[in-house]
Amino acid sequence: MTNDDATAAAQAAATAGSTGEQPTPRLTLRAGETGHAVTDTVWSQVGGTETFERIARAFYRGIREDEVLAPMYPQDDWEGATWRIQAFLEQYWGGPSAYQEERGHPRLRMRHAPFPVTPDAKERWLKHMHAALDEVELPPMHDAAFRDYIERAALAMVNRFE
Ligand code: HEM
What we know:
Blueprint: H1 3-19, H2 42-45, H3 48-64, H4 78-92, H5 98-103, H6 108-112, H7 119-136, H8 140-157
The structure holds protoporphyrin IX containing FE.
GO molecular function, one term: oxygen carrier activity
Keywords: Heme, Iron, Metal-binding, Transport
InterPro entries: GlbO/GLB3-like, Globin-like_sf, Globin/Proto, Globin_bac-like_CS, Hemoglobin_trunc
């Protein structure tokens, strides 16, 4: 292929993508329509379900002792709440999609609307999630990516400023 040919091919590919003539290829191979990814994922690289369960349990240990946050959570369903954050995080990082199957689309901002997520609540929530991550000691790049994600997600959840 000459340089001109290569340029033309690249332009054709770019145009096809932007006009929607061809669907954008979806590169993640899944084990079924809503199945987990077959290609390697952060989820599997950090140890899969076992690791996410450790994170969720350590996180809720902190939450249950937090005088501001604990009262917001369902006092008779700590196990359910633990499952929900675990399943959500597993799905987010490429693991099984059990969260979606049980709970549907996450719509996290909407689901948090009933709770007063003030800047103080956000800082407390993050403190417990960081402590949970300290405990599991993910590989450095995964640890950094996880912390970066929760910082951004937590900021997006703030819904009260008093
Ligand atoms: C910023 C401070 C936050 C506070 C105070 C907060 C508080 C809560 C509370 C009280 C619940 C209800 C517990 C339950 O029944 O499951 C909940 C649910 C949940 N939270 Fe948060 N949350 C915060 C941030 C986040 C962030 C950053 C994420 C995601 C990265 C998240 C993910 C979830 C999920 C997946 C559920 C379960 C939703 C469902 O399926 O009903 N939360 N949160």
